[in-house]
Amino acid sequence: MAKFECENKDELKAQCNHYKSIFSTKSFSETSHLRRHLISCLKIFNKDITQYTIATKPSLEGGSSIKTYKFDDDECRRVVSTFLVCDKHVFRTVEEPRFRYMISIVSLNFKNKSRQTTIRDVLMYYAKERDHVKEELAKTHGLICPTSNNWNSEHNNDEYICITAHWVDKNWKLQKRIIRFRGLSPPYDDFVETILCNLKIIFDEYVKNSKSMSSSLARSFNVSDNDPIDSSLHQLNVNRANLGGDYDEKSELELNSQIDVLDYWSKSSIRYCELSFLARDLLAIPISTVASESAFSVRKKVITFLRSSLKPKTVQVVVCFDNWM
C-alpha cells in the first residue's frame, strides 16, 4: 500500500501498489478491508533473477556470444529419464551418491528426485510420446504395415510379443515405431489356435475370390474375337500415353547400379502422382512379417537381466520409450 494524495488534506486514502485500488484509511476506521485485499490482491510478482544465468553460445563468425539461460526443471527431469531408459541404467541410479554429486556440480538449481519419482516421470513422458506417435500415425497418408517379433527374458521364462509399425512418411523416409510390447501368459495354445483359425478364414476367402476371378477372365477371353496379345499391346500404349508418353524414353538404370528408391520416388512424385501413391504403399510393406534382423534367425530377442526384474507394464514403457527417443 501507498499513501494516496487527496484534494482534501484531512481525508486519508491508500492505493494498492499492484492492483491500483483506492481504500479509505480514516484513523477511526477498521483495517480489516485492507487485510482482505492483501490476501486476494492480484500481485504482480517480479521475475526471479536467480533463475537466469549468463551462458555463451557459438556464433556464425566463429566466436562466442553471451545469452541468458533460464533453468528448466521439467526439461532436466526429462533428460534424466531419457538417460536412464535409453542407456539402460537402473532407476536406483538417481539415488547413488556419485550421481547426486555430479548433478549438484552441474546445476545447483536441480533437486535430485527419488527412484519412485523418477519412475513416475518416465511413465509421464512415455504417455506424452505415445500421444505424439498416435498423431504421427494418424497423419500418415500411405499404408501402415505391422511386423511381429518374440522376446524372452534372460533369467526367467517370460515371453513377450513386440508389434512394430512401418510406413513411409510425407518426406519419403521409411519410419518404424514399436506400438505394442506385451507379455504373453502361458499356455499359448488358445492364442495360436485363434490366429490359425483367422488365417484359415482369410486364406479360404482368397482362394474363393481367385477362382471366381480366373473363371471370369477365361470367359472374357473366349467371347472375344480379338487376339489377347494385340489387346494387351493396345492397352499398354493407352496407359503409356496417359502417363505422358515419354516414360520409356529415359535411359534405363543399370542392373547393379546404386539407387535410393525412396529418394527417386520423392523426386518423381509430382510427375507420376498416382504411381507414387502406389509406390508409397508397396515400399512400406516389409519383406517378412517378422523383424528384418530376425528374418534369418530362429533365436528370440532377449530382455536384459535388469529389465527382466520389472513388471510387464513397466517393461513395455521402457522398451517403447527407448525406441521412440
From TrEMBL:
Name recorded for this polypeptide: HAT C-terminal dimerisation domain-containing protein
GO molecular function, one term: zinc ion binding
All residue ranges annotated as the HAT C-terminal dimerisation domain in the record: 251-325
A Gene Ontology term for the protein's cellular component: nucleus
Superkingdom, natural source: Eukaryota
